[in-house]
Amino acid sequence: MKYVLKIFILWVCTLPLAGNLDAAPDFKNTLQGVAKNIRQMPPKINRNLTAPIRKIAAQTLPPSVKRPTAAIEANKISNSQSAHLKNSLQRSVTRLMKQMQSLRTHVAAQKVPVKKPVPAEEKAFVTSDFFPFLYSGKEIPTLPFALDRKHIYRGLGLPADGTALRRILQEGLLVKDVGPDNNSLRMSYASVGGLAALKQVAQKKVINLTDSPVLAFNYAWRNRHKGIMVLLSVRNFPYHGNIVVHDRDIPAADLEEAIVLLQVDGTPHWCKVQVLEQGFQITPYVEAK
What we know:
Blueprint: H1 2-18, H2 27-38, H3 43-57, H4 70-73, H5 79-110, E1 118-119, E2 125-127, E3 151-158, H6 163-171, H7 184-190, H8 195-202, E4 207-209, H9 213-222, E5 228-235, E6 244-246, E7 255-264, E8 267-275, E9 280-286
Antiparallel strand pairs: 1-9, 2-9, 3-5, 4-6, 5-7, 7-8, 8-9
Helix pairs in contact: 1-3, 1-5, 2-3
């Protein structure tokens, strides 16, 4: 799957240039911009995606085409160079699309079942807060949540004292508790409609969710500086998609499970969290045998 991602990124970056030669001098800047966005992802994903982009950014033009001069940068590329560059880019796009289709077919043929981690009930313990188990490493264990049509997810960065997590598990996800950037995406869409549309959208807070546990984790990762990374699975939800905007509270009864990334016995584990009268019960997930 990681090779499909690499090829897809190269294809997306290359495709616009195949039909627009004026963009060729900016090819390197485009790739560097993609790499900059990928750096916001967790390190393990970051390494897999940025390596091929840095390699291509260092060699923008084919070897047989001369490096841009002041005249070329002024859109004075000769006809022969333009034709050569266009043909080269078109061949690259065609080749990448064939490789991507081949890999997609290969992966579909494999049908290898993914073994999700399982809760180790014998390793469960009780704690009053999460400070002794904070994890600051870069290796992320396999998520116990999966992409399906039964659940939707929310990723959070919360204080390690557990107060906010306890309130969520007891009262649900409340619109009044969302962060200041809850409306960023909707505001960007509304900006097309002018000031009136912006004012109307800004007045309403929303809860952002996703049906992808990986995307939910990415949001929790961006907010890990707050203390602990938390993923919540929500059941009985009517909508699905990469981004789901919800403008009403989600009751605690619809929160099926909460997991937190903790360091237990010196090793990172996703851990199921359950509220007790005093403290929390923590059950680590371990790799399935």
